[in-house]
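Archive transcription. Copying these from loose printouts into the bound notebook so they stop getting lost. Printout 1 of 2:
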Amino acid sequence: MSAAIILAADYVLTGPDPELLLPDQAVLIEDGRIVAVDLLTELVQRAPEADVERLEDCLLMPGFVNAHQHGRALDTLQLGFADDVLEAWIAVRRRRGPPDPYPLALLAACNMLANGVTTAIHANTSYGSGNYEGELRAALRGYDEAGLRVVMCVGAQDRGLVVYPEEDAAGFLAGLSPELGQALSTPMPPPYAGDLAATIGLMDRLLADYGGHPRISFCYGPAGPQWATDEMLAGLARDAEKKGIGLHLHALESRAQSAACERLFPGGTMRHLDRLGALSRRVSIAHGVWMTPTDIEIAAERGATVVRNAGSNLRLRNGIAPLGDFLRQGLRVAIGTDNSALAGDEDILGELKLAAALARSNRWDVEDRPTTADLLAMLTVNGAIAAQLDFLIGQLQGGARADLVALSLGRLQQPYVDPSVPLLDAVLARATGRDVRLTMVDGVVLYRDGALQSVDRAQAEAQVRATAAASREPADPALAELVPELQAQLRRHYAGLTRGAA
C-alpha cells in the first residue's frame, strides 16, 4: 500500500463537460487510484495521514492521451528526412539502418510526459531489423522506464510491400532500372512477425510476459487495409475479439491510399472493414483524411474512433481530415501527434488547437467549430476509449487510475483575459506544453516544474544521439544509393493512380 496523496488545485476538471469544472477542489489518491474528488477539508478529514500538495494557480485534470504515435523521439527532419508526400517520404527511410528502439521510445515517452501526456498508443512501427519482436520488447523497455502508460500495437502487413495496390507491383518493378528492380525483388525478412499465425503467436507471447503489467497493454495494429489482406484483417479482428483487445490501424491517410482503396474496395473502405468484422467500438482508425460521408456514417454506427493527426497530415501533404463532418455525424474523435507535430515537438495541446482551427469552414450555413466539450473529449476520454482503457483513465472519478496533469494558469491569463471568457476556453486557446506543471501516471509524479523525476534526460538524449548516428549506416547500401530513383518512380506510379481516381 502506497502512501495516500491529496492534490489540491484552484480548479479540478473531472471530465470533458465544462460543467464538470469544480473550483477549489482536491483529489485523494491511494495505491495508484483516485479515491475521491472533494473539498480539501473533506478529504483531509477522510484521510488525515495523507500528504497534501497545493498546486497554486493550477487546473488539475485527466492526463492527456496521445492516441497515435510511433515512439520516435526525434522529428524526422532531425534524422535528415525532409517533409514530402507520404509515399515518397517513406521511401527515404531506406537510406537508414535500423536504430535501437529502446532509447527512442524512452525519450519519446519523456517528451510526452513533459507535455501532459499520460497514455500513448504506439502504432505499428517496424525498423526493418528482421527481429520485430526484439524491436517491440526494446520499445516496451523504454516506455516502462519512463513510466508512461502505453498501448503497444502489434503490427502486421502481408501485401503492398513495394507499392499498392498489390496487383500493380509487377508492372511497377518492370519499369525500374535493372539495379533497382533487383534490389526490390530480393527476398527480405517480413517487416513484422510474418503471417497471421506468426502475428497471433507474437501477441500470445507478449500477453504472457506483460499481461499483469499495470501500465502496458496491447492491441493489434495492422498497417492499413491496402497493406493487409482480408485474411489478415479478419483473422486479427477475430483474435482481438477473443482476447478482449483492440485494433488500431492506419486508414485513408493519403490520396494515394484513397485511390488504392477505391480499386480494392469499390463498396467503400469502412464497409469492407465492417464485413470483415474489423470495425467496432474496439477499433480506432488513425488519420481518416479521405473518409467519405458513407465511410464516416458506417464508422460512427459501429462505434469506432478516428484519431486526428493534424500536423502530420499537413507536413506529409495528405490533406485535412473533415473533423467537422466527423463530429456532425457522431463519429468519436481522439487526437494524436504521429511524432510529426507541426512544430516538430510533442505539444499535444498545440496539435489540438491546429485541428480545431482547420475544422472551421468558410461556409456561412455550417458551424464547424468544435465545442469546448468536443476538444476536451478528444484529449481525454475519447483517447481512453481508443486505448480500450475507458473508465480506467480519461476521467477523474473514484476507482480510476491516478493519471493526471496540472496546468499552470498564470502565463495564459497574462496580461489580461476578459472575465466573460470561460476558463476552459482560455486554456484550450492559449495553453501549451510549457504550461504543464505536473504529470502523474498511476499515482506517481513523473514530471514536475520542467524536470523529469525518474529519468536522466541528458543520458537519454545521449543514447538517442548515438543510435541515430549509428543508423546512418544503411542495412542495404546498394538500395540506399537507388532511393532517388525509387522516389521518382513512386511519384510516377501514384500520380497515375490518383489521376484516374474519383
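Printout 2 of 2:
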Amino acid sequence: MADTMEKIVSLCKRRGFIFQSSDIYGGLANTWDYGPFGVELKNNVKRAWWKANVYERDDIFGMDAAILMHPKVWEASGHVENFFDLKSDCKSCKKRFKSEDLKTAKVCPECGGELTEARPFNLMFKTHRGVIEDASSVVYLRPETAQGMFVNFANILDSRHPKLPFGIAQIGKAFRNEITPGNFTFRTCEFEQMEIEYFVRPEEADKKLEEWIEAHFNWYIDLGINKDNLRKRPHEKEELAHYARACVDIEYRFPFTTRGAQADGTWSELEGIANRTDFDLAQHSKISGKELQYFDDAAKQKFYPYIIEPSGGVDRTVLAFLVDAFCEEKVKDDIRVVLKLHKDLAPTKVAVLPLLRNRPEIVELARKISRDLKKSMVAVYDDTGAIGKLYRRQDEVGTLYCVTVDVQSLEDNQVTVRDRDTMQQERIGIDRIKEYLLNKLS
C-alpha cells in the first residue's frame, strides 16, 4: 500500500498535478500547490459537486462568505472555547504530536526522546486586523465555512423567501493550525471545504439526515469511486461534536501506512454528515441579539430549524479520486500507467498529436484541429515526443481521447481517435471530429 501512495505522489509531481509548496526553499510542511492538471481536476470536482447540489436542485442556494469574520462569531460557535487538540512536544527533537496519534504518551515516535505532558492547543489561526496589535484587533482565519452560512440565514430568508426544507451551499477555504500525519494532501493547515447547511423542521431531521447520507455516498460512486473502497461509519456517542445529535462519516480506504493501518489500507474520512440540531442558529441569535427564527405561515409560529450538514474536504476528495483512478496495466512487455478518471473529472478531455513533428503541413493541420476543439472542450496540443511516448503521457494524466494527425490525414481528411481505457483506435473524418467527441463526452 505504501508503494501505491509513493507512486501517486511521484506521478502528481512528474505530471503537474500537485507540488510541494515553496519547493525551491525546501518546502513548507503540509502545504501543497496544485499544478496545471491538478487545478483542472480540483475545479472539476468542485464543479461536479456544485452541479449535483445546487444546479440540479430547487432547494439549495449558493453563497461565498468572507474568510475573516467578526470574532464573536467564533465565541458563539464554541470554537474559542472548544476547538483544540491535546498535543505533546519532544524535548529532544522539538517536534509536536497529537496525543491521539501517539503509541505511548512518554516516548517520541521520531527520536525516542522524552515527551512533555499533553497540553491543549487551539486550532484556529489568530491574526490582527488594523495597524495596532492588541486584544481589540484580534481576528481569526475561519476554521470552517459553516458559520458564514449560519450568520447569513436571515439574509437568505429575506432575499429568496424559501420554504422549509432548504439549504445553503458553499465551497471555500478554511484554516486549522493542527499537526498533520503527513499523508500527502489528506490533512493540511490550509484546505477547501464543500459544505451544505440544510434547514429542516425538527421532526424531519432524522429522515433528512438519512437522505443526505445516501445522496452523497452515491455521488462518489457515480463519479467513478469503487464502491468497495467506500463505507459509512456512524459516530459513537462519545465522539460526537458538542452541537451534534448524530453524525455519519463517509470514509474511503486510502493506501496510507499510518499507525493502526490494515494490510488493505486505512479507512479515513472523506465527508461527515451531521444533525447539528438548532444549536448554531440559537447561539448566534442569542449572542448577536438578532432574530434568526423561521416563521411558519401555516402554523403561525416561529422556531429554530434543525440543520443537516454534509461537510466534505475538496483536497481529500481529489486525493481519493486520484487513488481510485490510478491503474497499472501490463501491455506486452511494458507497464502502462493510466488514470481512469471519470469523464467529468478528467483534467483534459482530448489531446491532439501530430505523428511527425518535422512535417510542417501535419503540424499545421493538428494545431488547426486543436484550436477548433478548444472552443468546445478542454483540449491540448502536444508534439514534444514520439507518438508512443505522447500516448503514455496522456494516459498518466487521464486524458480521455487522443487525436492523431498523420500523413494519410493530408489525403483522406481523417484522423485516428484513441480511447484511453480500451486503447482502441478509430478513423474519423476531420469534419465530424468535434461532433464525435462531444457525443462521447456527453
